[in-house]
Amino acid sequence: MRLALPSKGRLRDGCVELLTHAGYEIGALSGSGARAAVEGIEMIEMRPRDAAAALAVGQLDAAFLSTDIVTEHELDEYDAIPLGFSRCDLIVASREDDGRRSVADLAGAVVATHLTHTAEQFFTAQGVDVRVVAMGGSLEGVCAAGIADAIVDQRETGRSLDANRLRVLAEIAPCQAVFVRRDPEAFGDLVLRVEAALAARRQRYVMLHLPKGRLDELRAMFPGLESPTVLPLAGRDDLVAVHLVVPVNEFWARLGDLRALQATGIVAIAPEALLV
Length: 276
What we know:
Number of helices: 10
Radius of gyration: 24 Å
CATH class of the largest domain: Alpha Beta
Distance between the termini: 27 Å
């Protein structure tokens, strides 16, 4: 089985971190188009656009991509698992000083993008006639220099748009990293491990001491909890030890409430994996 990883950038960093967390030894992948056999999987580092093209024609079995690349190469029918990192927005932007305020104002304009198919579909759906031109490199600079009237590009922090004095006219779609595979039954062990690692990031394993009579209040505080593990404490009849798994945001939001229940010895640990 052949699997493509991004060869550089923020998307690659997130994929490497996730696979490492899931127990894959991928030190042989150096970020420069390297190849390595890892637990029976041939992993190949490639540019995401190249990986998507290879996946579409069956030269790869799976790839780590972003949702905008999936849409651009019409891979939407393939099984895709959202990974929750490398989040950004696909946007339309033009110069702040050009007087445009909406996508409709781009009628007759030249729009530069890395994603020509996606851009053409968007403007067609909007009923706006533009000329879409494929360009590489920094699209913000291309627009700022007046080589294009507008761009369709990713926005991560917005700093580059601000630096080039560009205004967002529309948000096309939110984007994130995804694991895409041709066969939804393939890479079962990798998917199991990756999903367990992702689930663990969103949870905390919490241990605390609690007065016996306040267990029902604890259950009410975390309604998604099936049942905590309750253990006796040596030499104490008034307290019990409680172990539970809760979403990380809920743990921090309810920390004061746990104190109000007279919980003590509160310890929260990030689990390595979580399977439910």
